[in-house]
Amino acid sequence: MKKKFKRVILVLLFMFVNVSGLFAADGKPIDSGATAWMLTSTALVLLMIPGLAMFYGGLVRSKNVLGTIMHSYVAMGIISVLWVIVGYSMCFGNNILGGWFGWNSNYFFLKGIDNSVLDAGIPEYVFSMFQCKFAIITPALIAGAFAERVNFKAYCFFIALWSLLVYNPLCHWVWAADGFLFKMGAKGAIDFAGGTVVHISAGVSGLVAALYLGARRGYPYQVIRPNNMVITMLGAGLLWVGWFGFNAGSSISSGLSTAQALTATQMAAATGALSWIIIESLHQGKATALGFASGILAGLVAVTPAAGVVQPWGAMSLGILASFLCYMAIQLKNKLGYDDSLDAFGIHGIGGIVGAIFLTFFIRKSWMQEAAAAHGGSWTVWNQLGVQALAVSVAIIFASGMTFIILYLLNKVVKLKSSEDDEMAGLDRSYHGERGYGMLNPS
Asked: What is the pTM of this model?
């Protein structure tokens, strides 16, 4: 009898321990499925940063490969620290200074979310770390615009300031519950996973930075070839894989909307890649590996804001459109002669604008019906187009203006552009005292 009683007690204790693990200290239930997917998505978005490092690193000359990779990696350190201290609060705290950005003292060093669970059923720590990865990769994207010629110390200061003064306010306006773009119109400006917050802001800022710093020495008269297209293709593959976390994870759930976003992501990437090499074949007579990789990114960037509201055919349409317009933007760059080294603006800026604007024409009917109901009457495609155009305009004007101010003031303190000697020697040796490939005379 005593043995049976002990067994019953042990079973009840075991059940209590396991069930209690499904609830936070404040009593909110934890959705283990959604939490598991969000943990996976967070890891997938983090994977995109080494993917970006490889993609960019393979496209520069061998003397700059390690320095270019470091641009992505150092962002993981700097932005992560800033995010925990003030970034999360500035992005998702309550409106202050007229809604310029947010603030919540509980988010300072994340000290107030230790036992917090969101209504979606995931620990707030998970959501915070998921969003942290977006904050990391956005300034890292900008580095592609001025690769091979930026002072490493100045770059570190630049991404820190840019994160605080450009990314955080934009994130708050678009994604925070009381952000003015989040509340605009029937259901706010549509930016499911960062077309406006991430790609437009990074692409436009990259263009401003490229113009401010000027071209690489010898450009465009000197032929500058990628040092390792194999690395670039591997990086593109990692970005494609990681983008499933980027887009499907932005559903902040594990359900129907997750599946819709994941499917849209796959189809936009595939269609964008095929479209690019078809365009390239017709225009240049050859389908290149770089073209296929560029098409992948163009499709992924365009579907990023749209992944939660378009069906597969809409995602495919955006992939085709983005590839065509991004390809044309790069051709125009070559004619105008400005040195956007790795086409940060040509792909991320243009692709982000294409996705944020043209998604309007592919929104699923159920979303429009919900928007009309929320608006208390009719809500048309043209109403939403106006909201999207305003959000894109705000992102372009704000990001470009603030980036110029940051660059101008920072250049007074730390010289932004590498000296001629440092640039000719290469970023690897000048700023890191290393060589990416251990070669005696990298070029």
From this structure: 0.92
